[in-house]
């Protein structure tokens, strides 16, 4: 009996029938039936194979679940919001996690609706060594200690050895690479970054870098920032990944894009990501938000919005006061006007760079009291975050495929699925089974209506979840069924590096 005969006669657990199936690796774009057994795809066929349960999906798109390389939104509530945006795996890779073994265990014990994972945190290793701090968790743990006295400074040779040893110990806890918030410690020195990349190369671990500079004019330009990453890739052989290239390049995207394309053409292990919004969000006391630096990127204190209060600092003096008294507060940074054609063209260029991934830079939701919303569903209407937490992937498909026709659907899906999986395969071979709709691949799948998929979250109402995702399966289990999120569904698994 051939494999095809076995597929036709074996009873599968679930048959997803008649969708337009997109597999970005093989280029498949055709109506197919997809069968699942357990957490694995067991058939992709034109045949109507036997199954215990059948779901008819005529008129819908079935694709691999989206893989978000850059999600600081690791609470259960925030991950549910990301699920409604088509995400089946959300990873904290830019900031990393200060105590990965502990954080993995907490998440595994509590359960998560979608898959999760973390990188080693260079910034928080520096906080431990230089400030004697004890940061906990991911980006918000970083934010709590961001105002520390020394962690941004250049390290002594002895301190640098301790920092690298700390990062190496985190790699050995099963992290998915090294997160490098270089832009938050630009005075740390290029030698440290180079040595960090050599460590990454030794472990065949990708690095995820927030580039050192983002200014358009010399010195310390966005072009310098990305050139440093490329040169380090060339000198060490490490896989260097640039986070949110849209917000670290801004209006220098033409020059930065040329460097990125040149690095790939030269065969370097180099990758990028972007998100389709004109505003960023970070802690208020990031060095690049000092009032003296704002004119260099074309913004004023009034272009910043404090997340928990909605305040727009009236001037540089008020901004400095907030940076001193509320150093961990999150602020939206309105770099680009999304309604302005020239500014929107900047975003377009970042999003269509060859082989670039889509990643959200999502921020966990907070309540009216400023505290994290951990496990509450539905979200309270007053929940605050950046709209990219809820809408990045649906917005990308709506704008780039349906409305502007700038990318074919297969390419757009690949940027949300296959490309992220390929970036992670060296450190975590499990990703060879993700980002694909093929027999033997993991049953992480999204089903959506191409005519209606859309973001609804806005800067004034960020708690609005996306529309158009009909079904979402994580490891073969429904998390969204017939457009309804199932709060009791917690099939997400820990995604760990091969050293775990």
Quick one: CATH superfamily of the largest domain? Answer: Metal-dependent hydrolases
Structural class, judged by helices and strands? alpha/beta
**Distance from first to last alpha carbon:** 39 Å
Total number of strands = 20
The CATH class designation of the largest domain is Alpha Beta
Radius of gyration, CA atoms, in whole angstroms: 22 Å
Overall mean pLDDT? 96
User: Low-confidence parts, pLDDT < 50 over ≥5 residues?
Assistant: none
Oligomer state of the chains in this structure? single chain
Counting DSSP H or I runs of 4 or more residues, the number of helices is: 15
Q: Report on the biggest sheet.
A: 9 strands, mixed
Strand content: 15-25%
CATH topology of the largest domain: TIM Barrel
Shape: globular
What does this structure look like?
The protein is an alpha/beta fold and 500 residues long. The protein has two domains: 3-64 and 432-485, Urease, subunit C, domain 1; 66-429, Alpha-Beta Barrel (TIM Barrel), CATH 3.20.20. The chain is 31% helix and 21% strand. It has 15 helices and 20 strands. It has helices spanning 3-9, 76-83, 100-110, 122-131, 139-144, 157-171, 190-203, 222-236, 245-249, 253-265, 316-325, 341-351, 388-403, 409-416, 418-424, and strands at residues 12-23, 28-37, 40-45, 51-56, 61-64, 66-68, 87-97, 115-121, 178-180, 207-209, 240-242, 270-274, 279-283, 304-306, 330-334, 357-358, 445-448, 469-474, 477-481, 484-485. The strands form three sheets. Strands 1, 2, 3, 4, 5, 17, 18, 19 and 20 form a nine-stranded mixed beta sheet that branches. Helix 6 packs parallel to helix 7 (190-203), helix 7 (190-203) crosses helix 8 and helix 13 (388-403) runs antiparallel to helix 14 (409-416). The longest helix is centred in the C-terminal third of the chain and has 16 residues, at 388-403. It is globular and about 70 Å long.
């Amino acid at each position: 009996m051939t494999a095809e005969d076995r597929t036709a006669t074996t009873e599968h657990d679930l048959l997803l029938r008649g969708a337009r199936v997109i597999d970005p690796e093989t280029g498949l774009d055709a109506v197919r039936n997809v069968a699942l057994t357990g957490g694995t795809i067991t058939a992709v066929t034109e045949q109507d194979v036997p199954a215990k349960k059948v779901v008819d999906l005529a008129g819908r798109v079935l694709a691999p679940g989206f893989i978000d390389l850059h999600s600081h939104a690791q609470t259960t509530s925030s991950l549910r919001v990301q699920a409604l945006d088509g995400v089946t795996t959300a990873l904290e890779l830019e900031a990393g996690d200060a105590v990965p073994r502990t954080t993995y265990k907490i998440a595994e014990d509590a359960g998560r609706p979608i898959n999760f994972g973390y990188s080693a945190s260079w910034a928080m290793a520096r906080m431990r060594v230089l400030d004697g701090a004890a940061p906990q968790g991911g980006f918000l743990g970083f934010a709590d200690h961001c105002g520390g006295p020394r962690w941004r400074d250049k390290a002594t040779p002895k301190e640098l050895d301790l920092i690298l040893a700390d990062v190496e110990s985190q790699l050995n806890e099963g992290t998915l690479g090294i997160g490098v918030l270089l832009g938050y410690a630009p005075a740390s020195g290029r030698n440290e970054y180079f040595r960090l990349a050599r460590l990454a190369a030794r472990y065949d671990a990708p690095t995820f870098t927030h580039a050192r500079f983002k200014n358009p004019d010399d010195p310390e330009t966005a072009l310098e920032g990305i050139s440093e990453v490329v040169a380090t890739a060339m000198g060490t052989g490490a896989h260097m990944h640039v986070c949110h290239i849209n917000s670290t390049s801004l209006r220098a995207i033409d020059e930065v894009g040329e460097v990125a394309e040149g690095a790939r053409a030269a065969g370097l292990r180099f990758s990028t990501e972007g998100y389709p919004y004109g505003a960023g969000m970070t802690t208020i006391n990031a060095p690049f938000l000092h009032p003296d630096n704002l004119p260099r990127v074309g913004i004023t204190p009034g272009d910043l919005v404090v997340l928990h209060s909605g305040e727009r600092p009236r001037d540089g003096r008020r901004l400095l006061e907030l940076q001193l008294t509320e150093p961990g507060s999150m602020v939206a940074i309105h770099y680009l006007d999304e309604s302005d054609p020239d500014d929107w063209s900047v975003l377009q260029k970042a999003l269509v760079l060859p082989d670039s991934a889509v990643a959200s830079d999502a921020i966990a939701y907070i309540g009216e009291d400023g505290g994290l919303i951990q496990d509450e569903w539905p979200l309270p209407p007053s929940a605050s975050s950046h709209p990219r937490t809820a809408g990045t992937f649906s917005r990308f498909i709506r704008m780039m495929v349906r409305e502007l026709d700038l990318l074919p659907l297969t390419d757009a899906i690949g940027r949300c699925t296959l490309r992220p999986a390929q970036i992670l395969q060296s450190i975590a071979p499990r990703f060879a089974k993700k980002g694909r709709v093929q027999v033997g691949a993991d049953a992480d799948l999204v089903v959506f209506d191409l005519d209606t998929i859309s973001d609804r979250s806005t800067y004034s109402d960020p708690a609005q979840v996306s529309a158009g995702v009909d079904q979402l399966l994580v490891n073969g289990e429904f998390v969204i069924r017939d457009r309804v999120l199932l709060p009791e569904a917690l099939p997400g698994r820990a995604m760990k590096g091969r050293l775990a």
